[in-house]
């Protein structure tokens, strides 16, 4: 489990879709084999360590549900180590279980922040409401507005400078995890 507060922006050194092996360079120290790391919102397991890199194996399910199917060497990933009991929960509970991807449609500089507009499928959009939490590429964010085909979030300067968002381009796909509380409430109300 994670908080959505990004601690490092890593770089993909290599990614082989055939062997489903991802190699990531990071500034994390003292990683251990078997440790869970949120890699742009996807909970992955450290399977090998070598100098400043760690290796993760991806399943076919992970590749099919995430933006990893289009990732390549040189791409940046938001990294967060798993939450430990007793640590502050600064963001919201993020599980690392990606529901799908959203397409970045617009980036608007709004004085001291950036407003990002995403399109999202209706099967995920039904869980969103204004001011709900959402994880976008592992970042805990608050939804500003919800539209019939998408939503907006605002990004403050600290988040812009300390996550992979600063490298974003229109047309890119981002991993989305719907807030688990919203999902459970939705399901309970439908019964």
Structure at a glance:
The chain is mainly beta and about 190 residues long. The protein has 4 helices and 12 strands. The protein folds into 2 domains: about 10-80, Elongation Factor Tu (Ef-tu), domain 3; about 100-190, Elongation Factor Tu (Ef-tu), domain 3 (Beta Barrel), CATH 2.40.30.20.
Q: Helix count?
A: 4
Low-confidence stretches: none
The CATH class of the largest domain: Mainly Beta
Percentage of helical residues? 10-25%
Give the rounded overall mean pLDDT: 94
Major β-sheet strand ordering: 1-2-5-4-3-6
Quickly give the CATH architecture of the largest domain: Beta Barrel
Structural Rg: 16 Å
Major β-sheet profile: 6 strands, antiparallel, barrel
SSE string? EEEEEHEEEHEEEHEH
CATH topology of the largest domain: Elongation Factor Tu (Ef-tu), domain 3
Tally of discrete structural domains: 2
Number of strands: 12
Shape summary: globular
Distance between the termini: 27 Å
Q: How big a fraction of the residues is strand?
A: 35-45%
Secondary structure category: mainly beta
């Amino acid at each position: 489990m994670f908080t959505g507060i990004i601690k490092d922006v890593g770089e993909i050194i290599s990614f082989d879709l055939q062997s489903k092996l991802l190699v990531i360079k990071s500034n994390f120290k003292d990683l251990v084999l078997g440790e869970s790391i949120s890699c742009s919102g996807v909970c992955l397991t450290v399977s090998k360590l070598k100098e400043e890199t760690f290796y993760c194996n991806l399943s076919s399910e992970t590749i099919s549900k995430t933006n990893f199917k289009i990732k390549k060497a040189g791409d940046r990933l938001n990294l967060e180590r798993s939450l430990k009991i007793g640590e502050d929960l600064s963001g919201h509970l993020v599980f690392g279980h990606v529901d799908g991807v959203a397409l970045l449609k617009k980036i608007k500089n709004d004085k001291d922040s950036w407003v990002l507009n995403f399109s999202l499928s209706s099967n995920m959009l039904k869980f969103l409401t204004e001011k709900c939490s959402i994880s976008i590429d592992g970042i805990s964010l608050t939804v500003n507005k919800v539209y019939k085909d998408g939503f907006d979030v605002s990004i403050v300067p600290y988040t812009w400078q300390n996550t992979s968002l600063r490298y974003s381009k229109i047309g890119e796909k981002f991993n989305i995890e719907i807030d688990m509380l919203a999902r459970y409430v939705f399901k309970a109300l439908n019964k």
